[in-house]
Amino acid sequence: MTTRSWPRVIVHADMDAFYAAVEQLDDPKLRGKPVLVGPPGQRGVVLTASYEARPARVGSAMPMAIARRRCPEAIVVPPRFDRYQEVSRIVMRTFADFSPEVEPISLDEAFLDMTGAEGIFGTPEAIGSKLKAAVQEATGGLTVSVGISGTKYVAKVASGHVKPDGLTIVPPALAKDWLAPQPVAVLWGAGPKTQARLAALGLETVGDIAALDPTGLEAKLGRTGRHFFELSQARDPRPVESARRAKSMSSERTLAADLSSVNELRPYVRQAADVVARRLRDKSKAASGVRIKLKTHDFRILTRQRQLAEATSASEIVNATAQSLLREIDDPGPFRLIGVAVFGIQSSGAAGQLELLAARSEGGRLDAVLDALHHRFGPRAVQRASDLLSRTVFREDVNLDYLENDASPDEDA
Ligand SMILES: [Mg+2]
Asked: Which tops the pLDDT comparison, 372 or 32?
């Protein structure tokens, strides 16, 4: 595995028929039998059906009365949420042994960012096998299905591709082709109503959408159309939002004119880095990582991020890191939006030696002077000379980045 072919390694891990599997684990009499977890009477819905019940076309959210009719031999077990929570903690702890960046989605499902972990765990295949074995061992026998790709979206579709006990690896370069034959139902945000709308337009597979002109799709479906087009291209810039990383601050600017060269972008990165670093200092916080985000004129979103050796709130360090991340962007642009974010936010008391050195350095003293002037006279009172040299003016903060909203744009499921 090279970092070139796997710019990010994103894992989606989803426990198989979790509640039912826990019941079968705890009660050997239930093993190998169709089990429905849910309220014991005819009312309410099935929470989870064991795999033995699924050939009878019984599944989650189905009214219990229908499920019982379809699968009369099923054993109905009332849910024990305390126990599921207990097992969930074991599962999430196991995930945490693999990556500091774990984003739990529910009791039995999480994303892991394993980027850069190949030195410890090996190829994506090896990561997946080790993770599955570790979960099985830690829980005493539960299985998990795992999908691994370069984006959250494709990893999630991949983990559902083979179940139970699946392991599906989709190398990022093949992701678009891998998605193409899948039904539109795998598009994130496409519930039954949207699927029907897509079917009416003659769009049945993800590949049908990928082949369209995105502007036409946008005209028909609005923002959802653009969103589906991005997914059909296997593009999904959302980072794995671990509790640690979720604490982030960002400053984004829509540029008044599309800019192409990295040199033209430098002053904007500088300003955004200043803004977030100042916000950190205002709140007596420090951050352990820096991320930049660029949006191209055709709405592609590029991100690069780096973990710092030590948490910082120094403008110089945030800016230097962001500028070096900017150099890693090899896309020709032009770009319409630029942002700098810091993540891994902690109280600055936790910041280490580097932070103290920065505070004592010339840069640190300059930060303090600029902060004081900023507070006294407002944001336009003091500007760095490099900013004054750039002629393009800022618009107000506009965040067009709907792709990073976790809410589905058209949730009708
Ligand atoms: Mg599950």
From this structure: 32
DSSP 202-216: T--BHHHHHTS-HHH
pTM for this entry: 0.65
What single DSSP character describes residue 247? Answer: S
pLDDT given at position 305 = 84
Ligand 1 center to 14 CA (angstroms): 5
Give residue 158 CA to ligand 1 midpoint distance, Å: 13
The residue type found at 305 is: Q
pLDDT averaged over every residue in the chain:
84
Measured in Å, residue 164 CA sits from the centre of ligand 1 at: 9
Residues in the chain: 413
Distance 133 CA to ligand 1 centre (A): 17
- Dist CA 110 CA 130 (whole Å): 16
- Give the chain's end-to-end CA distance (angstroms, integer): 38
Indicate whether 401 pLDDT > 90.
no
Distance 63 CA to ligand 1 centre (A): 19
Q: Which distant-in-sequence residues (6+ apart) come within 8 Å of 290 by Cβ?
A: 273, 305, 306, 308, 318, 321, 322, 325, 340, 341, 342, 343
- Ranges 52-56, 115-119, 238-242, most confident: 52-56
Confidence check: pLDDT of 298 > 70 = yes
HSE on the CB side for 288, CA within 13 Å? Answer: 15
Taking the C-alpha atoms of 362, 364, 366 and 372 in order, what is their torsion angle to the nearest 10 degrees?
-150
Which residues have CB less than 5 Å away from ligand 1 (the ion)?
Answer: 14-15, 18, 108
Q: Please report which helix (H) or strand (E) contains residue 89, including its range.
A: helix 81-98
Distance 87 CA to ligand 1 centre (A): 13
On the 0-12 / 13-18 / 19+ scale of CB atoms within 10 A, 274 is: buried
Which amino acid type is present at position 341? Answer: A
Per the annotation, the verdict on 101 as an active-site residue is no
Catalytic residue among 23, 52, 103, 109: 109
pLDDT band of 70, cuts 50, 70, 90: very high
Burial class (CB in 10 A: 0-12, 13-18, 19+), 364: buried
> What backbone torsions phi and psi does residue 288 show, to the nearest 5 degrees?
-105, 5
The secondary element (H helix, E strand) that includes residue 146 is strand 144-149
DSSP-based three-state secondary structure for 302: strand
